[in-house]
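Postdoc handover notes: sequence design on the structure in folder B. Input tokens:
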């Protein structure tokens, strides 16, 4: 009860209705880490049906990573959303998925937004820029996951177009909700938000110098010229957001199936692209602790994927404490009484 409830409903009546129907399950221990998702690679290749993915979960949460000989906990895919090459799926531990059966327990909505209009060419459509977002309510906390592909390019001022993309995605994204009197939810209205993907920010530095510092593994010096880091420090985009320390080589642009950056062996007619940290993970909100931030050495793309692990706290009503505070089941209680 650390955050005021945003609706104007009767908190006592809401609690009484919930406790009559169900008991909120105990919060499970922090799940073990899944180091590899190779077991779901076949599933990831399947096309998503956007029509049913627009609905709250409940009809499609039965795909489980399961192996009787594997001691790791079971995970359930509760939502998936795809827009051309941008894709998000949310998996939760089986015990958390059970929260869906509790009133106000677990619910999801997803939205996509393309930065290109209807007149986009087929070539640009294949490289669509925009975002896919998922809004997730877990007990009394709201989480949001945004995957985006921002404007590409290394010309002067390109970072300003990427900043504009971010603001446009935030402005245009709206989620349906059964909470807060059916008012649409925005990205900033969530308690914890994670934004990741090909953000496309580059390094403001001569190509020869970039490659020299990469060879020397001088990440701190390179970060000083990183566009996203500069825009964050200047408050021009993602104000108040955080990013973990980068202690790995730039993730872009590689020869496919190679550990060689494009341009190290110049070819005639080839565009000159300097190495850069295009692939990033940012977050904002209370109760978030980053445990790791790294890249993976998968060579099937010209990008190296990045990953991060977080410990995130969510708010759960303690019905026993609430009952003691209410004293009577049908009492009307104002939210501010419970504020710290």
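Designed sequence:
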């Amino acid at each position: 009860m650390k955050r005021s409830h945003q609706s104007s409903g009767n908190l006592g009546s809401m609690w009484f209705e919930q406790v009559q129907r169900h008991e909120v399950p105990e919060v499970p221990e922090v799940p073990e880490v899944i180091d590899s998702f190779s077991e779901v690679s076949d599933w990831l290749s399947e096309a998503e049906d956007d029509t049913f993915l627009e609905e709250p979960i409940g009809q499609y949460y039965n795909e489980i990573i399961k192996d009787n000989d594997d001691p790791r906990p079971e995970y359930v895919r509760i939502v998936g959303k795809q827009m051309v090459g941008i894709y998000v799926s949310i998996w939760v531990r089986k015990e958390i998925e059970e929260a869906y059966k509790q009133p106000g327990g677990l619910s999801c909505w997803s939205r996509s937004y393309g930065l290109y209009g209807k007149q986009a060419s087929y070539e640009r459509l294949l490289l669509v820029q925009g975002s896919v977002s998922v809004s997730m309510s877990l007990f009394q906390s709201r989480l949001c996951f945004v995957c985006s592909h921002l404007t590409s390019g290394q010309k002067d001022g390109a970072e300003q177009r990427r900043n504009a993309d971010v603001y446009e995605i935030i402005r245009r994204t709206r989620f349906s909700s059964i909470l807060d009197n059916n008012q649409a939810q925005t990205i900033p209205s969530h308690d914890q938000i994670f934004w990741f993907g090909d953000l496309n920010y580059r390094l403001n530095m001569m190509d020869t110098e970039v490659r020299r510092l990469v060879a020397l593994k001088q990440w701190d010096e390179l970060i000083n010229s990183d566009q996203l880091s500069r825009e964050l420090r200047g408050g021009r985009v993602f104000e108040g957001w955080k990013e973990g320390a980068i202690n790995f080589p730039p993730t872009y642009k590689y020869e496919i199936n190679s550990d060689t950056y494009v341009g190290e062996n110049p070819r005639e007619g080839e565009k000159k692209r300097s190495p850069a940290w295009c692939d990033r993970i940012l977050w904002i909100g209370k109760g978030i602790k980053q445990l790791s931030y790294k890249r993976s050495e998968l060579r099937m793309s010209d990008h190296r994927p990045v990953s991060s692990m977080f410990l995130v706290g969510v708010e759960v009503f303690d019905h026993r404490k609430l009952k003691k505070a209410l004293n009577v089941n049908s009492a009307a209680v104002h939210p501010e009484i419970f504020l710290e």
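Context for whoever picks this up: The two ends are 8 Å apart (CA to CA). Don't rerun without checking with the PI first.
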